[in-house]
């Protein structure tokens, strides 16, 4: 057999997207080029790797086995390159970080100096909801994750900084900002994040502990959307302070003091226990441990 790493890479992308067109876009190749490489790989085997039924591409059972082996080979090849570069005194490679949506206000500050020190390391940050972040960790699809509530997985972590949540209102409810009570809060519409969000869980826990049942509520799918809704006067919400600083400075939002608030959790950079970390990943861990306090003092105090 004379298959190449390039053919395996093309095959993996075709399997990932179940589409030659999407694989070509991802690889920055033409569709005919992808088809040719896929055919050259297929010619090495008597058993089909893929099949097309109707207009949909499917991976055969045999193809799934070759896919798993291909991913292992490509990962090994990448590690060979990383090791060779390490001996030259260079850190290279790729690091993938999954972050919950509010984490976009946190994680860039811990990466800026690192990228300057290691310009040959490629970083990918996937900002999404908590459930998808946890899934990516469990499936080993990401190297690190930024979370404020630790999922029920076996993890290593670096505790980065406090995550502080306050009750906030827009100008529509400013008259309540210094006289809010738990009873009054039941009369005001409350704006929640979507199910699965750590911010929503913290808010729901607070309301349950204080036996607060809002007379009306709304659900939005990002902290930015909640912030805009609060500023527009749709209601109040309990939100992380980290994403509100600018709006507070412009007096578009106010923090509403209330018994039992603020809520405090922690931002954590986590990775699965026993994960075989690349030299690039190990370098990031050491950098954050060494520069964590400096980053916090410079950007969050």
Would you kindly provide a written description of the structure presented here, covering whatever features stand out?
This protein is an alpha/beta fold. The chain folds into three domains: 5-85, Winged helix-like DNA-binding domain superfamily/Winged helix DNA-binding domain (Arc Repressor Mutant, subunit A), CATH 1.10.10; 91-161 and 266-299, D-Maltodextrin-Binding Protein, domain 2; 163-264, 3-Layer(aba) Sandwich (D-Maltodextrin-Binding Protein, domain 2). Helices cover 44% and strands 22% of the residues. The chain contains eleven helices and eleven strands. The protein has helices at 5-17, 20-27, 31-42, 61-87, 107-117, 130-138, 182-185, 198-209, 223-231, 245-249, 279-299; strands at 50-53, 56-59, 93-100, 121-128, 144-147, 155-169, 190-193, 217-220, 237-240, 254-255, 263-272. Strands 3, 4, 5, 6, 9, 10 and 11 form a seven-stranded mixed beta sheet that branches. Strands 1-2 form a two-stranded antiparallel sheet. The longest helix is centred in the first third of the chain and has 27 residues, at 61-87. It is elongated and about 75 Å long. It starts with a helix and ends with a helix.
């Amino acid at each position: 057999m004379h298959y190449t790493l390039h053919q395996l890479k093309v095959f993996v992308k075709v399997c990932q997207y179940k589409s030659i067109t999407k694989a070509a876009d991802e690889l920055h190749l033409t569709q005919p080029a992808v088809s040719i490489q896929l055919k050259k790989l297929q010619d090495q085997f008597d058993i089909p790797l893929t099949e097309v039924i109707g207009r949909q591409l499917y991976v055969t059972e045999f193809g799934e086995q070759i896919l798993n082996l291909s991913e292992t080979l490509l990962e090994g090849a990448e590690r060979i390159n990383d090791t060779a570069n390490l001996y030259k005194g260079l850190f290279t490679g790729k690091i993938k970080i999954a972050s919950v949506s509010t984490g976009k206000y946190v994680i860039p500050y811990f990466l800026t100096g690192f990228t300057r020190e290691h310009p040959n390391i490629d970083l990918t940050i996937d900002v999404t909801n908590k459930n998808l972040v946890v899934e990516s960790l469990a499936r080993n699809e990401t190297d690190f994750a930024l979370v404020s509530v630790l999922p029920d997985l076996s993890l290593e972590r670096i505790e980065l900084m406090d995550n502080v949540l306050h009750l906030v209102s827009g100008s529509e409810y400013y008259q309540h900002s210094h006289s809010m009570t738990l009873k009054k809060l039941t009369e005001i519409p409350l704006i929640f994040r979507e199910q699965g969000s750590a911010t929503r869980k913290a808010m729901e826990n607070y309301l349950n502990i204080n036996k607060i049942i809002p007379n009306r509520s709304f659900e939005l799918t990002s902290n930015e959307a909640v912030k805009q809704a609060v500023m527009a006067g749709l209601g109040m919400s309990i939100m992380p302070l980290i994403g509100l600083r600018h709006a507070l400075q412009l007096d578009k939002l106010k923090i509403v003091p209330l018994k039992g608030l603020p809520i405090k959790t922690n931002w954590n950079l986590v990775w699965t226990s026993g994960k075989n970390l690349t030299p690039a990943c190990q370098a990031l861990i050491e950098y954050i441990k060494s520069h964590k306090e400096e980053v916090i003092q410079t950007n969050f105090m």
